[in-house]
Amino acid sequence: MPTENRSSNTYRHTFTAICPDDGEVIVYSLEIRSPAMIRVEHIKTATALINQGWHEQIADQLAERFGGEQVIKAVHQGVEIETVRLSG
Q: Rounded to whole angstroms, how far apart are CA atoms 74 and 84?
């Protein structure tokens, strides 16, 4: 009976970006699950290059870059935002 490869790697990282609308510095909590190895240095570089942006657009950019399953959480003006991006 064939077995499916169900291995997964989970990466968590916290980074900041400025809201382009009100200038607030927002702390983002990123989690990526991927069957492929993602170099930590690539995650840190990709998030460091995000100076400002809207939460949903940041999620789209990182999902395109890394694939896998991604969750980003943040609180902005008292509103908790959670985006989920699933590849495939």
A: 12
Number of domains in the chain: 1
User: The CATH number of the domain where 24 resides is what?
Assistant: 3.30.1130.10
Output the CA torsion 88→42→36→80 (10° steps). Answer: -50
**What tokens does 34 get?**
């991927």
Amino acid at the residue 44 = K
Indicate if the alpha-carbon torsion angle 60, 12, 35, 7 is positive or negative. negative
Q: In a structure prediction context, what are the per-residue pLDDT tens digits for the chain, which is 88 residues long? A: 555 567 899 999 999 999 999 999 999 999 999 999 999 999 999 999 999 999 999 999 999 999 999 999 999 999 999 999 998 6
pTM of the predicted model, to two decimals?
0.89
Sequence-distant (≥ 6) Cβ neighbours of residue 6 within 8 angstroms = none
